[in-house]
Specification:
mainly alpha; 2 domains; 2 strands; elongated
Amino acid sequence: MPRRPPLPMLALFGLVVGVVACDARPTTSGPTAAPSACPKCECKCSCPDATSTGGTTAAVTPASTSEEAEELSFGLTRKLAKRDPTCLADLDRLAKIAPRTEARMQFVRGQCLMLAGRCADGATIVRKEMAATTELLPEQLERTVESYTSMYCEGPMDDRGELLRALAELQKGAYQGNIGIRACTNATRTVARLRGRVRPKDDEDWQVVGLENAFPFAAAGCLARAGDCAGAWKVFNEEAAHLRTITDPKVRAEVMRTSFDSTVPKCKGRS
């Protein structure tokens, strides 16, 4: 007589047969096909998805986007130095792909707005940023904002703005680098045209108060650095009104020559 398998083996065998029978699927379709007696098998995984945190899909910034944001950020400094107004478009792009980074560059945005011709908008942002990050007094703040506007604005301005912008251009050409004869000449004409129409805001409005003394030296220095010593000497003679008040012609000529040579050394003995 054959031996009966132990009870545990019989139970395991029955379980396997039941599973196979439960997962069986009809091989034919149509009205005669018998429906399955078992529900469709489902896979339920309790492990969190690799791209989610706490059931919420995590935002992943593509490496290419991060690299673009970094490149835009570094490039903005170069564009400002070159007075390139396309820095505004770069900031707008940065605001879309890296808004937190762009939010920390509002002072740069103010300057770029000025370069793009939107001077009032740019001045508003610069004023707001400086008020929040410095301890300047109101008068100091306004003068500083005005100074930035005169340096960066490429749009229309009132008479005072035009005068200060032209004077800043002359000072840059005289004391920083060669801006070219045409730029010096245009700025000189603008200052000469507007200086009588712009009044100082107060007795500490030094750029306007001291204009008569500073203008001839800045204009002459700008042309001298640009290589036009004859033009430098000519404009100095025409605009140095504070020296022309010397009544003795010989003394006046000597003082003017000495003043010119000492303040415009590039043209000493050449004009």
